[in-house]
Predict the structure.
Amino acid sequence: MAKPPLSMKPTGWFQVAWSAEIGLGEVHRMKYFDTEMVAWRSTDGRVAVMDAYCEHLGAHLGHGGRVDGDRIVCPFHGWEWDSTGRNVRIPYEKRPNRGRRIGSYPVAELNESIFIWHDIDGGAPYFDVPDVLAGFDDDRGAADYYPAATLFRPGLELHPQYVMENGVDFAHFTFVHKVPFMPDITRHDFTRPTSYVDFTIAFENGIRAEDVSSGVEAVNAGLGVAATKSWGMVDNRTLTAVTPVDDATSDVRFSVWIGRRPGDESSELPTGAKFLADAVIEQFTADIRIWAHQRYSDPPSLTHGEYDGFTQLRQWAKQFYPAAPTAPTPVTSERTQR
Ligand code: FES
Ligand SMILES: [Fe+2]
């Protein structure tokens, strides 16, 4: 077992589903951060995520709860709750219970994905989920990409930070991804909660290092979500999302988009794009095989070249962990000090 010595309750955005999994009026059960939750979509399309248990007598809203307009109705006694967890109607009383509230989470839905903001202290979001298609510094957007493939690997014994470290880990690319030489990291920016790592990389054999004209730009929004854009090679975008389930395991979601050729407006994914997306998934699977069995090394033994990237990343990561409870000041008495 390799339970990480890092908190599994970090603050930030975390993907909890893909949009297609929660249709209009549907209620979806899930467990994240050691908490039973429900996600439900109102009839006008908005997703709400809240704790699963009804504040009246504790029924699980994911077992028989139903959506009525912009409310979820408990199956036990019909109490109605809005998307912020407030009780808005008790069918057999004149007034709702204004005092009771089911814990709810800020939700973002973009790029066919659903994210919640998790903060153990209930703080509001202070950074955004990156838009993997429209959020890079170019004029591309959702219309330019096919959603081409996804990978879901639930319950892996890994911590979100392992996955974030992958970006600064230039040496693993030659071993895990079989690239002909190690990428050249051209940008590290760990000054804000959203960090940036860019590198040049080439996948074809026989190319000379000085001739590389392709690369990856990565945007890491906290520890849970990383968006990448490739340039100079297969036009792909990826979204990596790691969401803690409990104190030892996380669900990993990976989404791949492939660029459309100019003028291509077909709704059908071309075979070529599917093939490319599968290759991207395969590369990611190679990482997962390491992460799922890795033990967090602290302090790590780093080479001179690795030191800067890893140290900056690990320092950056600390801001997302809940503050450790302050240890009680040891009390010593005359009698014990012999
Ligand atoms: S337990 Fe939900 S309405 Fe009674
Ligand atoms: Fe990797």
Summary: Confidence is low (pLDDT under 50) at residues 332-338. The longest strand covers residues 145-156. The chain has two domains: 12-118, 142-320. The helical segments are 160-165, 172-176, 271-291, 304-317.
